[in-house]
Amino acid sequence: MPVHSRAFIAIGSNLGNPRRQVASAVAALAELPDSQLVAVSPWYRSAAIGPGEQPDYLNGVAELRTRLAPRRLLAALQAIEETQGRQRTERWAARTLDLDILLYGDAVIAEPDLIVPHPRLAERNFVLYPLADLAPTLVLPDGTPLGELLTELLAKCESGGIVRDSDGE
């Protein structure tokens, strides 16, 4: 059986009851086969990025140890999203749940429907802040434009109104 890989999963919701959506997502991540939920970051509220007027997002990051290959992990995450009513219509549209693989060990993957590290990781404060809560000394994989310390990326990223959610955790 393959060794466990350390994977970080972004979790976000801005439709329905976001707090309930992210809690259900965390519970589903804890049930993934051949995986262990290691930690979940505090939750953050941030303005939506995308078309039209949208409610704010509730965002966080989960750390997994998993034996699922990246493609199988992606399929499992998409199944969780679908179970929670995710509809893929317009890019960056409001959604009940969004789960993205941010990092998968030191893997660098560039396929049409799977890019790891996540291609916009360095630009997204709502990903960097919770990721830094879990792994402040993380060094991103070599061989990518992101091959640097997470804290360096965070220092370059605008806070842009992100707020730690006082009712989260």
How would you portray this structure in words?
Strands 1, 2, 3, 4, 5 and 8 form a six-stranded antiparallel β-sheet that branches. Strands 6-7 form a two-stranded antiparallel sheet. The chain starts with a strand and ends in a 5-residue tail after the last strand. It has 169 residues and is of the alpha+beta class. The longest helix is centred in the middle third of the chain and has 14 residues, at 70-83. The protein is globular, with a radius of gyration of 15 Å. Helix 3 (125-134) packs antiparallel against helix 4. The protein has one domain: Alpha-Beta Plaits (2-Layer Sandwich), CATH 3.30.70. It contains four helices and eight strands, in the order E-H-E-E-E-H-E-E-E-H-H-E.
